[in-house]
Specification:
The protein is of the alpha/beta class and about 280 residues long. It has helices at about 30-55, 70-80, 100, 130-135, 140-160, 175-185, 195-200, 205-220, 235-250; strands at about 25, 30, 60-65, 90, 120-125, 165-170, 225-230. Strand 4, helix 3 and strand 5 (about 120-125) form a beta-alpha-beta unit.
């Protein structure tokens, strides 16, 4: 896979091609009604996948990478909102401690790899070294070169151990990234998403483009390929990615007996107490 298909241009440049049109969109975006209907179907399939992963003892690792504002968090939420956190585990590691900095680079990620019956989702991963650490000057070029040699070998070992490894890059255009980051500034629900590091990295669009391109060339392997998701339309990106993920993991419905609620026991003299329960104020 070549990286030349990824978005190019300055942070405020206009894209030469826009979203495709069809009956499911309004103003070039997927309609909410269509999105909700399709997402519900995919949620049912994700639950089937969950049960199959537990039944078959599969080990699944999903890596999410992309620029700030590409939609990684929203996509991960769409995947996990209807499944069990005991099967779908999300890993979003903080900055490494001084002890972790002294370890072999991938060492702090290895304890989070999936065991049988688990799907682990990395919201950013060991590819920090090829992206933010490189662009922001936290890793030397020599260290990055070593990572490019090491990462494919580690991923090959993962796959040979039985882990199903899926790597997704969410590709956002310059204009859409600008719109999303600006929307965080005055939104009290989103301001926590806008860190000083985000602001610094925003100005380095082309540095990130070069880093992404080289990362693809070095780590897009036959055993662990990169899959690129166009994410300017968040709803469409989520549906496309979930659909693709489901196709990458062969699964079938696990037989289970029909569920019927048992009869509730009789009160046998029980009466509601007169205890002064502290009910919360009902403001709504």
């Amino acid at each position: 896979m070549k990286a030349t298909g990824a978005a190019k241009g300055s942070a405020r440049a206009k894209e030469s091609s826009g979203p495709r049109e069809d009956a499911g969109k309004a103003g070039g975006k997927l309609k909410q009604k269509v999105y909700d209907k399709e997402l519900r179907k995919l949620h049912v399939e994700l639950v089937k996948l969950q049960e199959w992963v537990k039944h078959a003892g599969l080990k699944v690792c999903v890596v999410f990478e992309g620029r700030d504002g590409a939609g990684k968090g929203g996509t991960i939420k769409a995947i996990t909102e209807r499944v069990s956190p005991r099967v779908f585990r999300v890993v979003a590691l903080p900055a490494p401690t001084e002890r972790e900095k002294s370890q072999m680079y991938v060492q702090r990620y290895i304890p989070h790899f999936p065991a049988a019956g688990e799907i682990v989702i990395f919201d950013r991963s060991w590819y920090n070294r090829a992206g933010v650490e490189r662009v922001m000057g936290f890793a030397s070029e020599e260290t990055v070169r070593h990572f490019f040699v090491l990462a494919p070998l580690v991923e090959k070992a993962m796959v040979e151990s039985g882990i199903i490894l899926l790597k997704y890059w969410l590709e956002v255009s310059p204009d859409e990234q600008t719109r999303r980051l600006e929307a965080r500034i005055d939104d009290g629900r989103k301001i926590w998403k806008l860190s000083p590091m985000d602001l610094k990295s925003y100005s380095r669009w082309y540095d990130y483009s070069r880093a992404r391109d080289e990362m693809f060339r070095a780590t897009d392997t036959s055993w662990a390929p990169w899959f690129v998701v166009r994410s300017d339309d968040k709803k469409r990106a989520r549906l496309n990615l979930i659909s693709h993920l489901l196709e990458q993991i062969p699964h079938k419905k696990v037989p289970r007996p029909r569920v019927e609620l048992p009869k509730r026991q009789k009160p046998r003299g029980y009466e509601e107490p007169r205890y002064p329960f502290k009910f919360i104020p009902e403001k709504y």
